Amino acid sequence: xxxxxxxxxxxxxxxxxxxxxxxxxxxxxxxxxxxxxxxxxxxxxxxxxxxxxxxxxxxxxxxxxxxxxxxxxxxxxxxxxxxxxxxxxxxxxxxxxxxxxxxxxxxxxxxxxxxxxxxxxxxxxxxxxxxxxxxxxxxxxxxxxxxxxxxxxxxxxxxxxxxxxxxxxx
Length: 170
Description:
The protein is an alpha+beta fold. It has helices at residues 25-38, 80-93, 135-144, 156-164; strands spanning 12-20, 41-46, 50-52, 54-56, 59-61, 67-76, 108-114, 119-121, 124-126, 149-150, 154-155. Strand 8 and strand 9 (124-126) form a beta hairpin. Helix 3 (135-144) packs across helix 4. Residues 1-9 have low confidence and may be disordered.
């Protein structure tokens, strides 16, 4: 796990969720973190890697290859659009092929939060539209930032507790 550091010239805090369910998942996640650094995204802290069941449009799919997930806290001078473009380049460089929505993939990197900004564009929504519903995003985020808040949704610890409460919808 990487620890927080102060980096001059990288002033917007971002939260990124990473996942992989094809190939050498751990090596791919580590490579993605290295590529982010090279693209001007200064990763300061990374959660541990955690396994999860694949989620498809109809819900959890235990028959699909399982995911390895992590959350990275970072700072960047890239705009939200430039950050998304850099992420798409990294995903392509690491073998991601976009054939089906929510399909299996070598790497998936989502912008969960970009400072306190809210962005609503057809191909870019910040905060991430489903982050508040995803244990595999909230739990690793909470691991690296116990006081985290998701803009428009509240504290991450409360969101995670609500997801894990008996009777909570899946």
